[in-house]
Structure formats: C-alpha cells, structure tokens
Amino acid sequence: MEGILLRRYGGFYYVESEGKVWTCRLRGRFRRTETDFLPGDRVEIVALGEDKGVIEAIKPRVSLLERPAVANVEQVVIVFTLSEPPPDLELLDRLLFMVSIKDLKAVLVWNKADIALAKYLHLPELYQRIGYLSLITSAVDGRGIEELRKLLRGRISTFAGPSGVGKSSLFNAMEPQLKLAIGEISEKVGRGRHTTRHAELIRLSAGGWVADTPGFSRLHIPEDITREEVAGHFMEMEPFLGQCRFNTCLHRGEPDCAVTAAVAEGVIVRHRYEHYLTFLNEVIAAERRY
Ligand SMILES: Nc1nc2c(ncn2[C@@H]2O[C@H](COP(=O)(O)OP(=O)(O)OP(=O)(O)O)[C@@H](O)[C@H]2O)c(=O)[nH]1
Ligand SMILES: [Mg+2]
Ligand SMILES: [Zn+2]
After folding, report:
1. Could you tell me the distance, in angstroms and rounded to a whole number, from the CA of residue 235 to the centre of ligand 3?
2. Which ranges of the chain would DSSP assign to H, the alpha helix?
3. Which amino acids bring their CB within 6 angstroms of ligand 1?
4. CA 132, CA 83: separation in Å to the nearest integer?
C-alpha cells in the first residue's frame, strides 16, 4: 500500500494509508538517520494486522524543507492581516522570495477581514495582479475558510507568517475538532503537550496535510543563490529580463534597463522593486564572505 508518513515517535512511524493511520516499523535494511524518513515522505507499507505495518520503500522527494524538516511540501500558505499586526511588506516579499527559491507554490492569506483597515484593502488585489493567489479570510466570521480548505486539499502545505496574524485560529476555524484530535494522539503515545521535537503532518478532514509548525522560521537568504538569479524570483520582473541593454544588468541604475523603466511606468510596484534591491544587496554581501 502507498502511504504518507505523518510523524515519527519512539522508533515508530505513523503512516496514513487508505483512510487510516498505521503504526509502522522500518525494514531492517534501511538507514535510520534523522533525515532519512521525514513527515511528508511517501512510502510503501505492508500491513501486519489491523493497524500495524512495515515500511518497505520510500519514494524520491519532490521537495525538502529543513526547518521544520518536512518532505514533499508543495505550497506555503503565507498569512498576513488586513489589520493588526500591520502587514510588513518586506517580510512578505522575503517569504515570497524564499518560497520561489525553494520552487514551491505560495498562497497569500489576508486574515482578520472582519476588522480590516481601509489603508490595507488594496493589498490582496495588488499581489493578485502580480500573480499570487490572494485569499481574504476571517477566522472570526468564517469568510474565506471554505476556499482555504479547498486550497489545502490533496496537498502538503505549511503555514508561514508573523506571530499574531491568526495561523492557529485559521487552523481551528477549518478544523474545529483538531485540537481534540491532537490531544488524543499525544496521550496515546505518552508524551506531554508542546513537546514535539520533530515536525509532524496533520491531516485535514476535507483532505490535505499541513505541517504543525510554521515553515521558514529562519529568514536569512540562502548562500547558494547568485546575484544574477535574484530578479528571476520576482514574478513581475520576469517579462523584462533579457530586455535590458546589458545582459549582465542587475537593474539598479544601469542605462536602458527594462526593469527600472517598468518601475518608472508603474508596471512594477515600487515597494517590490525596493525589496528586490534589498535582497540583491544581501545576496551580494553573502557572496563576499566566501
Ligand atoms: N478579529 C479577528 N481576530 C483574529 C482573527 N484571527 C485571529 N485573531 C486573533 O488574533 C490573535 C492571534 O491569533 P493566533 O491564531 O494565535 O495567531 P498565530 O498566527 O497563530 O500566532 P503565533 O502562534 O504566535 O505565530 C488572537 O487573539 C486571535 O483571536 C480574525 O480573523 N479576526
Ligand atoms: Mg499559532
Ligand atoms: Zn536591467
């Protein structure tokens, strides 16, 4: 049977397959280092009775997040608010940049719609026009929760976003039974609350899996990206790349630059361009350290 590894605990591997969770051991021949089997790994198991099994094989990963360590994450749900805490657009663009570097899909959630402030109402559409799916939600009045469920269905996702934006609240709004369910699992394996050392996947009743801890806890830009690659991670710049006079153009004041021309015309939003320059400078500074 094919399954998905939800979590590991005390030498056991909990695998969801065919609608239930199997408590599995590993076939003896597998290496058992920390990173060989992670939540999200797609595995093949053989049943040994009602709800026990053995992991026989693991499929190649399509992605790997290090913190939290989760395999096969496909999308990152980036949560900000239309209210408090005020949306920090540099942090938002940094998350989008890192999700792009990881080659994952980003979904933007604008929460607290019930207490939205007029000065932020343009943001969802601004990012939608750039090309990011933008969802407006409220964990209080339920707006957008059904759409969020649909976005999570059939995939492995992780949430990201600053403290206080409502990630846990959105989770509970989608899954009123969830808290209870987590409590039961914890008791069953005999560990206290808040003692999760490894990430685990939580299965949503409407389908889909979400990592229990927010992804992207460390926000430094990885060191293996080069200065030439930065612009390619800004979706709206892509149509202009290759159209500058110099093919080495870094779009920071060189003559006949298609990107800065697009910024001047308002085709590229200025704060996005400024954040491009910020990240570019960080990447260049990191190159110098070698
Ligand atoms: N009005 C309103 N308040 C909300 C909404 N969502 C969350 N809150 C409130 O915002 C506060 C923070 O919510 P949490 O769900 O704890 O935020 P979080 O993103 O999980 O925060 P961390 O766990 O610290 O990262 C709580 O007081 C929630 O009740 C919403 O849609 N509308
Ligand atoms: Mg939380
Ligand atoms: Zn240029």
Report:
1. 15
2. 89-101, 123-130, 145-152, 167-174, 178-188, 258-264, 270-288
3. 111-112, 114-115, 138-140, 163-169
4. 20
Q: Report the nearest-CA residue for atom 3 of ligand 1.
A: 112
Q: What is the pLDDT of residues 63-93, one digit of tens each?
A: 988 777 889 999 999 999 999 999 999 999 9
Phi-psi bin for 133: left (phi > 0), alpha (psi -120 to 50), beta?
A: beta
Q: Fill in the DSSP letter of residue 3.
A: E
Residues 6+ apart with CB under 8 A from 242: none
Q: Which ligand is nearest to the CA of 136?
A: 1
Q: Taking a C-beta distance cutoff of 8 angstroms, is the pair 244, 257 a contact?
A: yes
Q: Whose CA is nearest to atom 24 of ligand 1?
A: 163
Strand pairing report for 42-47 and 52-58: antiparallel
Angle between helices 167-174 and 145-152 (to 10 degrees): 90
Query: Angle at the Cα of 105 (from 104 to 108), degrees rounded to 5?
Result: 130
> Does residue 82 contact residue 112 with C-beta atoms inside 8 Å?
yes
CB atoms within 10 A of CB 159: 24
Q: Per-residue pLDDT tens for 126-177? A: 999 999 999 999 999 999 999 999 999 999 999 998 888 998 899 889 988 7
Catalogue all structural domains in the chain, each as residue range(s) with its CATH number.
2-60 (2.40.50.140), 65-211 (3.40.50.300), 227-288 (1.10.40.50)
Note if the pTM is more than 0.90.
no
